[in-house]
Amino acid sequence: MPLVQEVPSEIRSLTRFVPLLGEAAVEDARNLARRLQERLAGAVVWNVNSTAVGGGVAEMLHSLLGYARGAGLDVRWLTIGGPPEFFHLTKRLHHALHGGRGDGSPLGEAEHHVYASNLCKNAVELRGLVRRGDVVLLHDPQTAGLAPSLLAAGARVLWRCHIGADDVNADVELGWRFLERYLDGVPILIFSRERYVPDRYRDGRVVIIQPSIDAFSAKNVELDEDTVRSILVHVGLVEGPPPPSPRESFLRSDNTPGRVERFADVIRLGRASAWETPLVVQVSRWDPLKDMAGVLRGFSLMVQNHALPEADLVLAGPNVRAVADDPEGPAVFEDVYRAFREQPAAIRARIHLAMLPTADVEENAVIVNALQRHAAVVVQKSLHEGFGLTVTEAMWKGRPVVASAVGGIQDQIEDGVSGVLLPDPGDDEAFADALHRILADPALADHLGAAARARVRDRFLGVRHLVQYGEIIGRMLAA
């Protein structure tokens, strides 16, 4: 089986953004696409990453490539493959660039051999697809080692890093030292935040582009209350019965009808939450940096310290066996389950650990959409975060968000205006107090949610993101 796989992209029209952004902004994006198409002169723009399912990068690529193709550009998406030891190593790199130790395994010459030898095999397959003059946008540490081979083949290469750390420590330095031999020849490096840029690359090669969401994807499209309730009852996250006219259907990106057929695997002490019960929700990968166990402990403190209002907690992530490039998932889920078992029975009865189905990407997305829309408060208590698209998604749905003041979350939320930031992600007491403050004050929750949606509309939708990419590629082609 080939290591390199092409991911199909649906064609999506920019016209749907007109009601949100206005005709002028959308027409500017179309004009840029036409100019870029002329400069490409038949060349392809390739995106290369490590997975088509799970995580914000894959979600953004599904969306952005669809709109780029709808604007007339030949944009394609490839994923690379490899053995478990390769993804174990790249997960260690992921932690290092966030400033964490991960499993503490080394990043020395033996690891370079594992990394480079696997990417060499992928590069052989890539060079059978990528032609001289094509543009290749490599995403994240998993793909950085492809750059030298692609540059030697005459491709125009950019590398996009979606992660980083605000403060440099020994692990951050170790991670960047590992990657430098692969990146030094890349002419354009793209980061999400200025503070993530290593000193080595502050030489004019860096461009800052913040991520975005697709307001019309299955994860973010408007859902009415009956559809939300139908979906959550069907998957087992809310107790039935469903509304009188159940609606688990949704519209896929290719405009064909879809339906939520699968169920969530949920660990709980008793029954699913009642529809009327306020939910505190965190949706993320089962990753130690997302601190799901910390969310659970903080929620427990809130319940112990504040008798009212009553609420349940839902910690939701993908099925731990479904994400190919995340080998830590099962162990992290086990840690969260251990924290769950340690709670008193009365608190466990209000906590729900949900593994959402991922076999159908858009089915998974609409389940997340329904869950976020039903949430009374959405949480992202990450210890480190590259950007945090789950924050953007919840803000777009008008939900009040409590999140850590780390990474790109700080660029999204204005503390006290469009959400609540936690200065110390490890302060479970402060987290518990923030949750209670919002749950106990519906007017505050409504104010934060409305301001959050407006901020996303103005700053974090996909048209802005596409325009920035187009401008950078256009400059590269003109050089």
TrEMBL record:
InterPro entries: Glyco_trans_1, Trehalose_Metab_GTase, TreT_GT1
Keyword Glycosyltransferase: yes
Keyword set includes Ubl conjugation: no
Sorted UniProt keywords: Carbohydrate metabolism, Glucose metabolism, Glycosyltransferase, Transferase
Gene Ontology terms, MF aspect: glycosyltransferase activity
GO process annotations (BP): glucose metabolic process
Pfam families: Glycos_transf_1 (PF00534), TreT_GT1 (PF21269)
Domain of life: Bacteria
Sequence ranges assigned to domain Glycosyl transferase family in this UniProt record: 277-454
Assembly description: Homodimer.
Family membership noted in the UniProt record: Belongs to the glycosyltransferase group 1 family. Glycosyltransferase 4 subfamily.
PANTHER family recorded: SYNTHASE (CCG-9), PUTATIVE (AFU_ORTHOLOGUE AFUA_3G12100)-RELATED
Name of the molecule in the record: Glycosyltransferase
Organism name: Polyangium spumosum
